[in-house]
From TrEMBL, chains A, B:
Keywords: Cytoplasm, Isomerase, Phenylalanine catabolism, Transferase, Tyrosine catabolism. Its cofactor is glutathione. This is Maleylacetoacetate isomerase. It catalyses: 4-maleylacetoacetate = 4-fumarylacetoacetate; RX + glutathione = an S-substituted glutathione + a halide anion + H(+). One of its GO terms (biological process) is L-tyrosine catabolic process. GO terms for cellular component: cytoplasm. The lineage of its organism: Eukaryota, Metazoa, Chordata, Craniata, Vertebrata. The keyword Cytoplasm applies. Its EC number is 2.5.1.18, 5.2.1.2. Its main location: cytoplasm. It is found in: Cytoplasm.
């Protein structure tokens, strides 16, 4: 935390995992300070000695809050949910909570890790786009089907949940990797409804302290 | 659920994600039936029409319980924790809960997805071993450091938690991929202490209904 007691979010404007946490912080009205970690510049600032000491996985987001340091976006969101429960991001019904966590894990464990920067580096420049598109398509094929039985206005019912915090940044990645979204009408319409909400707008990659001028909106 | 009301676990003996759930079921004393899904045989039984209808991600584990179907191992474990809270797999202290979820997500989102069967198939036979070793080594380097500040007898303090349910199956994968565990004394000693517990033994890949005879112990 800062001297004034504000939480500190180590974040990269384009990181979809950071965006998930930024939405949670915005929805819950938690004031925080951003420390940008540029994953590209200087060979990747996440590899600096200082940052590695903070997060040995060399990844964003990392949140300093209440005297502790938490890594992993879903672990951060679950902590915020327990300590700052309003508005809630997990439904009251345990069966619906299971759906929310299932969708969140599908994205956070089944799609995003396969198309993140460090994996794409290993895959090599020539194969990157195909690899990323494949990972997203496989995941979205499943997700579209699952959402047909869980969704209301949003991913699970009619309240914004942790699943929605995972969906929107993943759709942004899909667009960045030029995935055809036509086969995913449910995903697309939920995404559209979420993007107009204030918390999704202020946390958007095009409106962060570290967003390069040419990408600002 | 079966007609008798028992939960059904769709599982593969060697799947590390299935093993996580088997440990949870064993610890909580939940009687269940196993439906084996062989990820190799018949070109992969997870690709059958019937199984895809059940789990569009074409992955194990999947649990049918209380009239619902849950995919994703951590979502399943969180549901079990809410509905069958004894013995607890998440500490009472929210800060320790955050550590448990952070370690669980590090393994379930940061290591396992990069070395699972479908990714290794894409990487190609020649590169598989190096790729898997690299994913596990990167993750374990971070995990070893994190555990030094969270561990007691087990991953977080002295009680078995969800983090331990992720650790043991991941160490088994590391051994299968011939990762040198010498640089990870904390991981290794926690793993050793957990492996002797009954719930970890009955759920072990070498003791499942679908374990091939030559691998049984």
């Amino acid at each position: 935390m800062t001297e004034s007691g504000k939480p500190i979010l180590y974040s990269y404007f384009r990181s979809s995992c950071s965006w998930r946490v930024r939405i949670a912080l915005a929805l819950k009205g938690i004031d925080y300070e951003t420390v940008p970690i540029n994953l590209i510049k200087d060979g990747g600032q996440q590899f600096s000695k200082d940052f590695q000491a903070l997060n040995p996985m060399k990844q964003v987001p990392t949140l300093k809050i209440d005297g502790i340091t938490i890594h992993q976006s879903l672990a951060i969101i679950e902590y915020l949910e327990e300590m700052r429960p309003t508005p809630r991001l997990l439904p009251q019904d345990p069966k619906k909570r299971a759906s929310v966590r299932m969708i969140s894990d599908l994205i956070a464990g089944g799609i995003q890790p396969l198309q993140n920067l460090s994996v794409l580096k290993q895959v090599g420049e020539e194969m990157q786009l195909t690899w990323a598109q494949n990972a997203i398509t496989c995941g979205f094929n499943a997700l579209e089907q699952i959402l047909q039985s869980t969704a209301g206005i949003y991913c699970v019912g009619d309240e914004v949940t942790m699943a929605d915090l995972c969906l929107v940044p993943q759709v942004a990645n899909a667009e960045r990797f030029k995935v055809d979204l036509t086969p995913y009408p449910t995903i697309s319409s939920i995404n559209k409804r979420l993007l107009v909400l204030e918390a999704f707008q202020v946390s958007h990659p095009c409106r962060q302290p570290d967003t390069p001028t040419e990408l600002r909106a």
